[in-house]
Predict the structure.
Amino acid sequence: MPAYKARAISLKTKPFAEADKMVTIFSREYGKLRVLAKSARRVPSRLGGRVETFSYADYFIAKGRSMDIVSQCEILETFQSLREDGSALQTGLYFLKLIDAGTSEGQHNPELFDLLLKALYTLKFKKDPQLVEKRFEIAFMKLEGIYRDGVEPKLCLSEHMGVDLCRW
């Protein structure tokens, strides 16, 4: 079974089967990937906390028949301070949802990955979440080629993705 390494940010997790987690990660090299973390929901799991949302890590992934499987995970940054600050947490989750909704699986976009990572680090260092959010939205729209001067970013992004972002 061939394997590969991806330095990625965990966008979201959800339960899968009895004890596994389906993890959506966003990497610089491979774009958005859905991978399986076996036994990650068990209490003595070596992967459980490492694949949680916001985790920036080196993922060692084995190619599976129908789905790739996380075999190892080495944490680089947990962004714990975002989880402890309500407004930073809300803004960070908004970024992750925006990336998840705005990209398709396997879409290679290193500039977008760098933008997300920079925005999360900026939030970590206690910058104003509203200012970081506005800058992120504008930079995201410019990368996607949908930026229109004078138009509210959430409206433009909502139109582009077909999702009402004003409710997020």
Summary: Strands lie at 3-16, 20-27, 31-37, 56-62, 68-77. The first helix runs from residue 80 to 84. The chain has a mean pLDDT of 90.
